[in-house]
Amino acid sequence: MERRFAVHACTAVITAAALLGSTSAHAAPKGAEARAAFDRGVAAYKKADYSGAADALGRSFALEADADTLYAWAQTERKLNHCDKAIELYDRLLVMELPGANKAAVRTQIEECQAIIAAQQPADPVTPTPVVTPPPEEPARTPDDIRPPHRTSSKWLNPVGLGLMAVGVVGLGAGSVFLVQANSAEGDAATATTYGDFERYDDRATSRGKLGIIATASGAVLLTAGIVYIVTRSSDERAPIAFGIDPVNASVVAAGTF
Questions:
Q1: What is the dihedral of CA 199, 204, 207, 208, to 10 degrees?
Q2: What 3 state SS string does 130-194 have?
C-alpha cells in the first residue's frame, strides 16, 4: 500500500499512476471486476466526465477497498465541487495505514475543501439583543427649563450599514489574498519540471481561485448593501440610542431605531 500511494500523496493530486492511463499492476485494484471499474473511472476522468468517473471509482472501491482508488474517488468528487463528499472520503483514507507524508497531503486537501465550504456560507450580521436601562429620575422642571431636543444623529453612523460595510471589506481583503495565492500557484505550475508538480500547483490555483472569487464577490455585495442601506435611510428615522450594561454577558449594548 505504501509503495503505491506514496507517489500520489506526495503530489497531492491524482497523478499519472492513478488517473492518467497507467496500467501498472501496482497502481490499481487486483480483482478483475474492481480493476475493470477502476479503468472505467480512469477513462471517464480523462474525458472530464467526473460524474461517470466518481460512479465507477465508487463501484471499484466497494468491490476492493484500495487506497489509490479511494484517493482517486475523493479527488474526482472535489472536481465535481462536492467538497462535503470529498472530505468524507479523505477522512476514510486517513484511517488506513499510510506513511506520514501521505496523511499530511490528505489533510492539506481536507483543509482546502473546508475553506471552500466556509467561503460559500452567507455572512449574516449579528444583532445583539438590546437591553434598555430605565432613565434616571429627573427633578421637576419649570417651563423655562424646557428646551426643544437637539438631534445630532447622522445616517452615516447607522450601525447596521456600517456592520455590512465592515464585513464586506473583510471579504474583499480575504478574496484578494486568495487570488494572489492562485496567481502564484499558476506561475509555479507554468514552471513545474514534473507532471506531478504541475498537477499539484494547478489544483491549488483552481481551489484558491474559487475561494478568491467567492470571497471577493461576497465582500462586494455586502459592502454595496451597507452603502445602499445607509444612503436610503433618513437621519430623521433614527431615534436616540440608549446605552446600557448587560450584567449577564458583561457587555455594553445599545438600543434604538437604526
A1: -150
A2: CCCCCCCCCCCCCHHHCCCCCCCCCHHHCHHHHHHHHHHHHHHHHHHHHHHHHHHHHHHHHCCCC
Q: State the average pLDDT over residues 126-148.
A: 68
Amino acid 137: pLDDT: 74
- How many whole angstroms separate alpha carbon 52 and alpha carbon 60? 12
Q: If we measure between CA atoms, which residue out of 175, 157, 171, 177 comes closest to residue 224?
A: 171
Mean pLDDT throughout 132-155?
Answer: 64
Which three three-digit cell numbers place residue 161?
450599514
- What is the CATH superfamily name and number for domain 2-120? Tetratricopeptide repeat domain (1.25.40.10)
Separation of alpha carbons 12 and 43, rounded Å:
20
What is this structure's pTM? 0.41
Per-domain residue ranges of the chain: 2-120, 149-255
